[in-house]
DNA sequence: TTGTATGCGTTATCAC
DNA sequence: GTGATAACGCATACAA
């Protein structure tokens, strides 16, 4: 495999000149430029980025850590990140953490090992303290899920308001018995969604029935389990707000298995608006996050941190939207 | 950030010795080893992989090119690849090609630029010729989708047999009017699935009605469109075999919109057994690929190619399975 | 406008 | 067992 030296010899110039041509330096006679280009072509030369990056102490590579590519929620976010990255000469490296902190540290090490210029977390597993420490030495951005008080930049939506609106939507449809399927993880967004739900109930002076409170893991099965338990009782809610679409769909399935029809006998609201929310029968009323925009914003923030090491941590909140579909309808009086 | 030189000075040894310690060389007195380790710890030293990889002309990084992380089908495959990679000291870099050949070439360039040791394609967009040429210079493995006659290793299932069995299942349930929703892409697997379907019909001397033949893009909407058109006619099939689960789900939705119930009035078989296939109501009869195993096999093959540059191209066919669920039932007589 | 020389951080060869 | 040093491929400061 040809290297820059061979190209130089073949073109009859020095390696410096070849390097200049490769880097679009204006100080090269167009004639020599041609010579170099033809040598490059002739030899099928491909610059070795290891050498280049070592010399530049920059890789133009950004790590994107996500819990799982099985979750379709992340696809559009990643697309947004990628587009901004590519438009700025960067590549991104997607890394599956499996929500495993050890696996996450494995990838963080690649950053510390100078194989990448920065890291975007879609759902950080490490603690706020670790995150803070990391961000002191390297460009770090959190996207969607984030650790509060870590003093680390993040892009997100207002989860509190979103949950508040979702719950209020159910209340305005006449529902008074409203269950909540939350999660027992320690993400701030979870707490915020829970609080938004409580706030709406409070505002309308609706009592919160603790029996209707459930905790899942964002996945389908936990929704199904919650639904199976909850809907077996006579005193069951007429509506459920689940903080993820997959859990909402699990609830609907559990309802169907008990002969309870959605939305006739039970209204269900999800969260995230994954593509399947629209494919599902009944289609799902849910909160839509501007995922592509969130990804774009996160990568732009990353570039700012890379180019300006002293760029201060900042928090970006983008607009969400309540999407009305078939899974909710007015309560029977 | 400390480098190997500073560690050496701090420990009072040469850089060579530090390097030996880092690489577990047996020829180091345990006493000096301790000194070096404590220096490493004290200085918070992290080896720079750019320097190491440049010197070693090896990165222990493998590219995995997939059309889209939005497709849940790939998740388990990637998991299989990752597990084998990590167990062998490799990392993988996931790259979204968006089924775009230019984007794919962008990532292939990273390989040519020595930033990775090899590439695994989950659905190659470049031509067989390009693939062949690439594989002559670099370790290349195809996984699931592949270009035939490229002389490039691949891991897959027997798509012909799988489709044959899926169709035969419908025939044995008494269906004689069986539609096929295929795709108009140029993947060999598509042709093979189509041929499997034809073979089954032939074997049972069932005429193929070309009006019931459709071509989608593997996505939900194309399934819905096919279903909407097909099921509007009086002369409609009693069963449909779709070569992807998302298309199958689209067909079911279209049927529901026309008051046609699955499986009572229409049986539907999908392909791939994505997680929605199980969540969906009705749950989907489909072909399950051993996705994790496929990923594992692909990465093992990659390691073989990396470690043995002359390792011959080989073709691995793993076992599929027909999964029976709610979306199929006996034809009404 | 071009060439020479140096260094990025590491590993590997050789000598001791 | 350990150290000195060349080499990996490239970009760049400086000289010409």
Task: Write the topology of this structure.
Two copies of one chain form a homodimer.
Chain A: H1 4-11, H2 15-22, H3 30-43, H4 49-56, E1 61-66, H5 73-87, E2 91-96, H6 101-112, E3 118-121, H7 128-137, E4 140-143, E5 154-157, H8 159-172, E6 178-183, H9 188-203, E7 213-216, H10 220-230, E8 239-242, H11 245-257, E9 267-269, H12 275-279, E10 286-288, H13 291-307, E11 315-318, E12 321-323
Parallel strand pairs in A: 1-2, 1-3, 3-4, 4-5, 5-11, 6-7, 6-8, 8-9
Antiparallel strand pairs in A: 10-12
Helix pairs in contact in A: 1-2, 1-3, 5-13, 8-9, 10-11
The structure holds a DNA duplex (16 and 16 nucleotides).
Structure description:
Two copies of one chain form a homodimer. Chain A is built from 13 helices and twelve strands. Chain A starts with a helix and ends in a 10-residue tail after the last strand. Chain A folds into three domains: 4-43, Orthogonal Bundle (434 Repressor (Amino-terminal Domain)), CATH 1.10.260; 57-156 and 291-318, Rossmann fold, CATH 3.40.50; 159-289, Rossmann fold (3-Layer(aba) Sandwich). In chain A, helix 1 (4-11) crosses helix 2, helix 5 packs across helix 13 and helix 8 (159-172) runs parallel beside helix 9. The model of chain A has no long low-confidence stretch (mean pLDDT 96). The radius of gyration of chain A is 26 Å and the shape is elongated. With 333 residues, chain A is α/β, with parallel strands linked by helices. Chain A has a six-stranded parallel sheet with strand order 2-1-3-4-5-11, sandwiched between helices. At the A-B interface, helix 4, helix 5, strand 2, helix 6 and helix 11 of A face helix 4, helix 5, strand 2, helix 6 and helix 11 of B. Chain A binds a DNA duplex (16 and 16 nucleotides) through residues 3-5, 13-20, 22-23, 27-29, 32, 47-57, 114.
